[in-house]
Each structure stands twice: as C-alpha cells, then as structure tokens.
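To assess whether the prediction recovers the assembly geometry, we first specified each molecular entity separately, as shown.
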Amino acid sequence: MSDEHRWQVERDTYDWTGIWGGVRAALSMPGLVMACSFIGFGALINDLGFPLLAGTASIPLIWALPGQVLFVTMWQAGAALLLIAAAVSLTAVRLLPMVIGVLAQVRLPGAARWPEFLLAYFTAVTIWVLSVTHLDKVPKRQHLPWLIGLGATLMAAMCVVMPVGYHVADRLPPVLAACMVFFTPAFFLLSLLASARWRFDWAAIAAGVVLLPLARWFAPDVDLLLAGVGGGTLAFVLFRPRRKGLINRGEPHE
Amino acid sequence: MSEALWIIACMVPAGMAITYVWRWLGVVAVTRIDPESDILLWVRAVSTALVAALVMRIVIAPSGVLADIPLAARLLAIASGVAVFALWGRATQAGTFACVIALGVLALVAG
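The predicted structure of the complete assembly is given in tokenized form:
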C-alpha cells in the first residue's frame, strides 16, 4: 500500500447512508428474537408489579436487558439503591470488552471519534453478535453507521413492543403468561452459553447457577452479588487461561 | 405515576450512568487496552456468573405467574433448552424457544 493511499484512508469519514441498511436489518429476524425477550420483560415487570412507565424508561436509560431485569427485580425486593447500582454495574462490565470488540471491527482510525461514543451507547449483546455475523457484506465506511441505525431502530421498536407484553400478560391463560415471563431467563442463559469462549466462561456459568441457591440460604439480601462475585472469581482462579499465567509470572513459553 | 417518576429519577444514576461508564471506558480504551488482559477476563467471569445467578434466581424464586408452576417443571424446562443447545450445534435461538415450550408442556402435564 502506497503512503498516499494510506494517508487517504486515515482521513476517511463515515458513509452515513449505511444507517438505512442497519434499519432494515433491525426489522428482520434478529429484531424478532429480541422482541420476544422484551415482550417477556414486559410480562415480567407486570408480574412483579413494577410501574410500566419506569420499565419502559429503562430501555433507553440502561439498554442492557440483564441490567434492566436486575434493577427491576432488586427494586421490587426492596434492596438499597447502592446495592442495586453495584449489581447493575457488575452486569454492565460485560459491555466494556463488548464495545472494544465492536469498535475494533468498525471504527476508522482517522475519522472523528464522537460517532464511537454514540455507537457505544447502543452496544449490547445483540449488536455485538450481529457485528460479527452480518457486517462482511457491508462496505467498511458504512459499518459504524449501519450499527447505529440497527441499534437506534431496535431501541425504538423495543419501547413499543415491551408495553404490549405488559398488557397482554394479564389477559393470557396463566400457563402462557408464565411462558412469556420465562423467555427472559431462557434468553439470558442461552446467550451466555452462546458467547462462552474460555473455559472459565463455562465454569462461571456453572458457578453462578450452583452458588445462587446456597447464597440465598446464607444471605438472601445479597444473594446475587455473592453468587456473582464469588462464583466468577472462583471460576477465574480455577480456570484462568494458562498463557496469561505464564506471562505474568515471567516464565518462558513452553 | 409519581412512584414511576421517583424510580426513573433513581434509575438515572443507579442504572444509566453506571451502565454508560463501562461503554465510555470501552471507547476510550479501544486504542490502548488489551481486551484479553487478566483484569478484563476476571471482570468477564464475574459478570457471567452474575447473569447466570440472575437466571437461577428467576427460576428457583420467582414471583407471580411463574411461581404457580412446580419448581421441578421450571428446572426441567431450563435443562431441556440447554440440551437442545448442546445437541443441536450451539443453536441459541432453538434452545431459547425449547426452554419456553418445554415449560408450557410440563406445566400442562403437571397441572
């Protein structure tokens, strides 16, 4: 690659017509799966007796379903705001590597940085999955606008879909309503399994599942934090990637 | 109404700000941090375990409509979704729907 060409790439700007491709993608299959989990979230907050307006506000405010469910669940359980904030923050930590992963694929090194902060606002599990699977057919300069179009459309659509779940839940036979509520934990668990990459990921899933009943028995007020921090740390200590350990101890490879 | 507004007022610091901080750090860090550093991997483990624990909490200690379905049915439903995922080549969406359908079937059989 010539210097001249390189210079041109670095001064590049985003092609914002890419937004429309993202909008169209949001209105297809991925949007449908996401809609099912947000209908389930609507049914869940109805079930918990959480106000619909506050539940809907959580969509643009938090935009990460695990954090939203955690906030709602702990609020209804009467947890202290500081504990809620700590727990929500711990689930949101997943967004940090996720944002890095997404941006590393789509950002243009020489372009303005503000669109990256905007994309970070929309970044969540679904966007991350789609950025891995759908972007190869989109021109590079349209990548970031494409994802922003996708994220903004999904966010707006979920604000409409979630209240439907909330209202429908009351009128369904109890078993069907229970199935709708069940969509949320099912979607979470399967997303965790789908995104597991390291051995400690699997161990952390198992540890969270196994430790929660124990934590509930010993300290029902902080069961989630205890099982999450304890289980995650245990999984990491036992199944930490070997390569990193060697580097940190200053030992030679192999 | 006023209760909802109070919750939203609490949600701005305890939900929005605290969530966006991590996204913001991601943007700042993308040019300089190693996404596979030990601290980030530990953080990933904790947040994975926390979400897994949240799933378990909804499954074993639900309120409302879900509580009327026997615990065994809830646990079996989750297990069948995981089985579909494992046997069907990591089929995430099929696994999710399998959990939900299994719960409905088991509830009808048990009830």
